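Suppose a classmate hands you a notebook page containing two proteins, each written out with its sequence and a corresponding row of structure tokens. How would you begin to make sense of it? This section walks through that situation. The first entry is reproduced here exactly as it would appear on such a page.
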Amino acid sequence: MIKAGIIGATGYAGGELVRILMGHKEVEIKWYGSRSYIDKKYYEVYQNMFQIVDDVCLDDNIEALAEQVDVIFTATPQGFLASLLNEDILSKVKIVDLSADYRIKDVATYEAWYKIQHKSPQFIEEAVYGLCEVNREDVKKARLVANPGCYTTCSILTIYPLAKEGLIDMSSIIIDAKSGTSGAGRGAKVDNLYCEVNENIKAYGVASHRHTPEIEEQLGYASGENVVLNFTPHLVPMNRGILATAYANLKPSVTEDMVRAAYDEYYKEEKFVRVLDKGLCPQTKWVEGSNYVDVNFVIDNRTNRVIMMGAIDNLVKGAAGQAVQNMNLMFGLPETEGLNLVPMFP
């Protein structure tokens, strides 16, 4: 059995990690880390785990944890892992980090967008960006994986085949994305109170959202170009889900058949990316609770633009599910182990 520890086990992503790993036949959770609930039984925080998890929450002592487990998941705020990680820890344990600390290769870009100093930049180059559908072989060899962000996972996988095949003008990309409130985390914030969110939709982080450089960097690798794009997220009154709608100009002579062929070719072997039939638009309700990404497109011949659409569950494929998918690859397990989660409806 693989022994796993979770730091940040009582946040939304951490709780989802626990739920998924409880159904993973090759993993035993040994450490439920939570600075806010030390010595409190885990089921007292999440009552859905009553008579399922009897362990108590421990602190976030990563050095002690590294002595006891094979893999650590850090579902923590930006800067946490970067401030603690050292070679001694990495020599003992594999790490899947759900924060942004090692996603962006340029330190100055990370520090400019996240407004904090990076404390361990020596590990950035080694860290593998854990988008399994793109970097699968590198993930298999990694000891440190940077689990992608939720908006970025949905946006990149929605656009990737067309960027990789050079079918779109990369300077014309606009991404409009909408997320449920769990994407903002479990911490108490006035903007996330029921009365603030219910019966409302709003844009936020306009021209300044921190996932922007991550999307640009990864699509830049795909296209071989320097990518600058518009990304605007919105908060909608639902618990889970992200819907990304991306727009781009088609290159001259690109046809609908060429676009369809690109999606089909890139995702035909991918268990968790579902290219929908023509005329079907992705919807968050059809991926909720699962590790699936639903994608599709429509070509607007009037404007010669392609509208690319993708939907994910932000807590599963956008966080915990993708982290488990990465762990499976790192330990040579079937990539789908613990992740055969049928979407929930209603």
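The notebook's second entry, a different protein, reads as follows.
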Amino acid sequence: MTGVLFLTESFHPVLGGGEGHIRQLSRRLAAAGLPATVLTRRIDAAWPVSETLDGVRVLRVGPAGRGRRGKYAMVGPALAALRRERRAFDVLVVRGTRVLGLPGLAAGRALGKAVVLQPELNGEMSGEVYTWGTPLHVPAVRRAVAVGTAARNLLLRDADAFVAMSRAIAAECLAAGAAPERVVRLPHGVDTRRFSPASADEKRALRARQHLPESAVVATYTGRLLRGKGLETLVEAFAAVAGDDPRAHLMIVGSGEGQTLSVEPQLQESVRQRGLGARVSFTGRVDDVADRLRVSDLFVFPSEFEALGISLIEAAACGLPAIGARTGGIVDVIEDGASGLLVPPGDAAALASAMRTLLADPRRRERMGRRAREIARERFDLEDSVCRYAALFRELGG
């Protein structure tokens, strides 16, 4: 029996696409007979050191506290925990290579375990992620970082497998020197039964419960409210659209609370200053976003730096056409002109134009939504994803 341990910087109750992916995957692996353990950081001292969630053991190590330094400080305690748990797993899956990649690989090798590296962001293997969005994103610094990253990659490419959630990340792994046979393109999956289109009657009832006007055309974003997600651009674009179409309503689902890169207060202030308070809904954190998507008419995902975007896949499964930035793994989900529209990252005018196009054309939204649902079922179904993960882990752990 192959045991799997996921080593990750953050996990439940942190709410995010990657955290949700590991929770769903580990739970279903455990149900399929592959014992799963998650080893993560105890960000909040009130969280339990250990617990069992849905048949999955969750172990948390210190130090507690928000901020980036804690991610590095967890390395020592995490390595000690790996040694203690060495009899509980055969395959070590390291989510994210920036902090835990090298230590995790070294520990796995020392313990005689198979190691799978799973980059969680674009640019991890090229080094771009270290400077993007900072004042250090200048040619001289980027060149220096690229040299250091290439040296690190000489060691990382010894991993038994690289799981790439998008074409862009797969290409990065190959460019970093990973053997082609070790790079497995395996996108995150979603439960396409839970995330499914609402009937007209269901939609009316859901809108009434959520206090949304039945006549509104609702554009929705779901995810964390962080810098780099393009949310400032979204509010600017919607402000331009709102003046043209009185039916348009923007729903922003999620929170940035407790996150270093949160832009939630700034977004709320921007909406207030623009006089859009009645036209923009901030829901805050919700544990189940399916009903928010099922009342919506289109999805907007303007993220400027996105590995894949599980929120985008959930929206597609709900039959929503999407407008997304042409970057990272977003292009793996949106077929431009068929299931949605792609726009340049950070371009508020282009985003507003795309929103106007879909807000004004219900037949096109319906047609694109059908194709989006097909894509979700064909490429991103959770059951298929779990089967492929299980096969990979059994092969490596056998």
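A careful reader of the second entry would note: The longest helix spans residues 139-156.
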